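We give the chain.
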Amino acid sequence: MITLYGQTYALDDPLVLAALGGAALLLLLFIILIVTLRAASRSARMTEPLGYHLSQLGNRVEALSAGQERLTGGLHHVSEAQAASQTKVLQLMEQRLAEVSRGMSESLQGTATRTARSLGELQQRLETIDKAQSNIEKLSGDVLSLQDILSNKQTRGAFGEIQLNDIVRKAMPPDAFTMQATLSNGRRADCLIHLPNPPGPIVIDSKFPLEAYEALRRAENQSQLIEAQRMLRIAVRAHIKAISERYILDGETADGALMFLPSEAVYAELHANFPELVREGFNAKVWIVSPTTCMATLNTMRAVLKDARMREQAGAIRATLRQLHRDVELVVERVSKLDTHFNQARSDLEGITTAAERAGKRAAKLDNFDFEELEGPAEPLTLASAARVRDTA
């Protein structure tokens, strides 16, 4: 129940219910109004920055529009500049292409010329190579022939003798040596150098231990090397012994001899790896020489031979010098006498010249009829009168 202004109303009364509903509705409307006003107030506060942002956005749109216009103008200018630049680039490229084409043409012409020249030179070199090839083939045949010669002991000995003969003939005078000389013991030496005493005639014998040396060069292991070295020692010692016993004779030859090795390689091998063999040769007075050292030794012998011959001819040279000195003295005496005759002849010529001048003067006076100046009859012109005229002049 509800009491209002002294009247009581039931809650289930339709009027009460309608009034309560109307009041509730009014209250709801009031609440909605309040809420709406607050929302409007908040909306107004929120729309203020939105308007500001909209204004800023408008300004930016205007700026973007102006920038777009400027960009359009710039793009147009860039397009024009790009077109001009492309035109210039095309022109430069055309010029460059023309220069490159001209340069390539000249280069190709020069290359063709150089190529033709190179081909000509190549042809000449090929011809030279062909000639060298033929020479090499010929040399190969000669080498094979040399190998054939060296493979035989007799022909190898002849090869060494020929080489020794050539060296000796180049280094010594013809009367200073004898090839294939026979000694008093019946042995024939390859070469005998006629040196004076001392030391006396000295023998040079050619030896060539080729088999042992080749075995030494072909050795592939230690056992083969040792065997080849043994063979070389045996061969060289046998040669040293043979030369010492056959070609060193008391009272007939020098107390030493030379063993000629016609190979520098064998000589170098002995001195490098077999010095004991060289010492054994020294002890046996057998000196081992190669083509080079043999030439040097022979030049020394030639100097010794020349000095000995000079000493032998010293007396004859002194006698010849005395005769030469006497001849020089006679020449000096004769030159002195000849100088005296020349002085006398010069004096006579001077007198004759003076007399001729005086005669010329007298002839000139006669030609002018100047007789009063004549001193008298002229005497005959003689050497004595000419001398007097010279003295009075």
